[in-house]
Fold this sequence. Notes:
The protein is an alpha/beta fold. The protein has one domain (4-155): 3-Layer(aba) Sandwich (Rossmann fold). The protein is 40% helix and 17% strand. It is built from 7 helices and 6 strands. Strands 3-2-4-5-1-6 form a 6-stranded parallel beta sheet. The longest helix has 22 residues, at 73-94. It is globular, with a radius of gyration of 16 Å. It starts with a strand and ends in a 21-residue tail after the last strand. The mean pLDDT is 89.
Amino acid sequence: MALILIYTGDGKGKTSAGIGQIIRALGHGARCKVAQFIKQSPEVLDSGEVRILRRLGVEFTSWGAGFSWIEGNDAKNKALAQQGWQRVKDWIEEQSCDMILLDEFTYTLKFGYLDLDSVLDYLGQRHHQEGFPHLVITGRDAPHSLIEEADMVSSIDQIKHHLYDSERTFEPMIEF
């Protein structure tokens, strides 16, 4: 049975966790694909993650224009999100992969680029069907209704990060 896994929260590492799931699946011979939303194309970002996944034969597509607050990107991101979601549905219908990472997908729902109810209806109808792939969804502010549909949800919280004010103190939720 296919699983829907969500990595959400305000901390850094959600995409890395999703890529870790892809690496694990590849190690078991799974066919994997990545649909990245909001972020600029892998050719622009040229990250190590994109390079290694492509080297390992993973189709890595981008459906984003960049930060939504940059003038003009909001409309571009909406159009690209709709195209990207259609491509993901095509992969699901074709049964062309065993796992799909939908990176930064929660933003498409939060900003209304995709209709949440339509996405939930689609997932709800297919989630438990034969041939449905595992889905790994990342991004902040995962909607509660999407969390309800998921099989596993991890919230990644920021305790400390080297790019932010080192004088800031945090109250950890757990004792170390």
